[in-house]
């Protein structure tokens, strides 16, 4: 549980830095990072890629979080 929160925090923060714009705050960054881990795991699974270890999980969560931030921004525009 703590491991997922730490990975989510790092991934959410990185996604916020890369995507620029209005920040969502620490709690939403953690949530986006954790949900990003699920989305990233699904996307990487579809591509047949597997990343293990702390760095791998952060990368997968980061990619998923970037996808989620992009989707949220597209929905907000509509």
Helix content: over 70%
- The rough form would be described as globular
Averaged pLDDT, please?
Answer: 82
Distance between the termini: 35 Å
Largest sheet: none
Radius of gyration: 12 Å
Topology, pairings included?
Elements: H1 2-19, H2 26-46, H3 53-77
Helix pairs in contact: 1-2, 1-3, 2-3
Write structural notes for this entry.
The relative contact order is 0.21. With 78 residues, the chain is mainly α. It contains 3 helices and no strands. The chain starts with a helix and ends with a helix.
Relevant terms:
3 helices; 78 residues; single chain; mainly alpha; 82% helix
Summarize this entry quickly.
The chain is 82% helix and 0% strand.
